[in-house]
Amino acid sequence: MHIKSLPRPGDEELALSKRLQAAICDEIEVAGGNVGFDRYMEMALYYPGLGYYAGGQQKFGAHGDFVTAPEVSPLYGQALARQVAELLQQLENGCVIEFGAGSGKLAVDLVTQLEVDDSLPQSYTIIELSAELRHRQQQTIRESIPQHESLFHWLDHLPESRVEAVIIANEVLDAMPVHRFRHIAGRFEERLVGCREGRPVSSWGRCSVVLTEAIAALSVDFDEGYESEINLRLSPWIHALSDILDRGAILLIDYGYARREYYHPDRYTGTLMCHYRHIAHDDALLWPGLQDITSHVDFTAVAEAASAVSLDVRGYTSQSNFLIGCGIDELIAGSAQGLSMTDSYSQAEAVKRLMLPTEMGEVFKVMALSRGIEQPLLGFGFRDLTGSL
């Protein structure tokens, strides 16, 4: 998409982006003129006070840049709560840990439904790096469920002691920094980011040994000119979760594919995507700090990382299959009673967005990893696609 097709940011936003570009260029200069795309993506999203997720601009909902499933309908959180409740009931002192809770909407919907199901956790910890988002989450919880405010705690790091927990990461993995690579003339090259006239610019350079070996380990026969990405931070993150999880489960919800689909020959430009005011495009160097930068998740890599640290893959399926398994049909029927015609129509449209293959239903996947949980998981009872990994 051409830059002219995008709405122009305001002067204040552009000034913030310019400050971030200056900070990025300073680091690039110290690094010798280039950094890997993964480091650029990390700074663009998380640079203190200026990165996309660290700044104060609206990100979620109609006035932001994208809409997450919890923002679409409370039915999403209510259905997910049924899976969380089933898991908490198998833990003696089970808590919930949510990564990157966004606006706080999912936490509110989960706790509201968990109370209905008589399955409230011992505590609900939100791991949030952004001070601005943490403040927004606290405000949302205070306004929506003040009676449960004492359940919540915030950290900017993993708990230091082992826990019995249900860990939730909804649209977290897609925002992890990735390396970009291409296959050219029988070798692999890495996307690098430098600076010119105070702005980030990209080029191709030689892959490091570590990156070359990681690409080779994918066991994919890449065509000439094929470009894509790989997340080298995924495995250490799964390893860190395993270190703190004494017993419980990890629920990962994100858009992505099994490896054979992720690196399909037809997907020859990769999955990197940017979002600005609900418009998707692929220019990750545009207006750093003002737009989201994401890549899809290689769920085969997630399963491999989990297996390496003795976590069990307990299910993998599409979002629509998962919500059906969690009984969203019953929740829809129950919530429809007493709705006006207008509200009924709005709910139907929201359900379509959550469930239809052309919307979130198919491209979003759900994966469960567990330790010490023997019972089959509710959300994967309708259709489990683990065999496709």
Automatic annotation (TrEMBL):
UniProt-listed GO biological process terms: methylation
Protein's UniProt keywords contain Acyltransferase: no
Gene3D superfamilies per the UniProt record, alphabetical: 3.40.50.12710
InterPro entries cross-referenced by the UniProt entry: NDUFAF7 (IPR003788), NDUFAF7_sf (IPR038375), SAM-dependent_MTases_sf (IPR029063)
Annotated keywords: Methyltransferase, Transferase
GO MF terms held by the record: protein-arginine omega-N symmetric methyltransferase activity
Protein name as it appears in the record: SAM-dependent methyltransferase
Organism of origin: Solemya velum gill symbiont
